[in-house]
Amino acid sequence: QVQLVESGGGLVQAGDSLTLSCAVSGPTSSPYAMGWFRQAPGKERELAACISKSGDGTYYADSVKGRFTISRDNAKNTVYLHILNLKPEDTAVYYCAADRYRLVGVSTTRGQYDYWGQGTQVTVSS
């Protein structure tokens, strides 16, 4: 059973930086294409950023370009989301997800992801 566990969320102030981590464990040693999604209260879950299996491909939603950076360390089976200059509108539950079928490139739609973490809350105060 593949498990994804997010960490690093919390209560921060506007302008702060934060790094979220997603630890992946399971029966296979092969890395997955990964994504970070977020869901604000009363809104749909949306893709923030995603990364290919090897890490050589990334994609960002327009709303986070320039402030979010996704990265991965396959030796540690961990994917990161680095967030700069946090804004109140970044307040959301952040989820990591894995696409077990994609071999190259990135997965940009929610339906492509097979495994999900439980999420970590990020709250940005103004």
- Give the amount of beta strand, in percent: over 45%
Low-confidence stretches: none
Helix percent reads: under 10%
Q: List how many beta strands DSSP finds.
A: 11
Shape: globular
- N-to-C span: 40 Å
| Secondary-structure class | mainly beta
Task: Let me know the largest β-sheet.
Answer: 7 strands, mixed
Radius of gyration: 14 Å
Number of helices: 0
Topology order in helix (H) and strand (E) letters: EEEEEEEEEEE
| Overall average residue pLDDT | 95
Describe the protein in words.
This protein has 126 residues and is an all-beta fold. Helix content is 0%, strand content 48%. It contains no helices and 11 strands. The strands form 2 sheets. Strands 2, 4, 5, 6, 9, 10 and 11 form a 7-stranded mixed beta sheet that branches. It has a 4-stranded antiparallel beta sheet with strand order 1-3-8-7, with no helix packed on it. A hairpin with a 6-residue loop joins strand 4 and strand 5. It is globular. The model has no long low-confidence stretch (mean pLDDT 95).
Secondary structure topology:
Layout: E1 3-7, E2 10-13, E3 18-25, E4 33-39, E5 46-51, E6 58-60, E7 68-73, E8 78-83, E9 92-99, E10 115-116, E11 120-125
Parallel strand pairs: 2-11
Antiparallel strand pairs: 1-3, 3-8, 4-5, 4-9, 5-6, 7-8, 9-10, 9-11
List keywords for this structure.
126 residues; mainly beta; seven-stranded mixed β-sheet; 0% helix; 48% strand
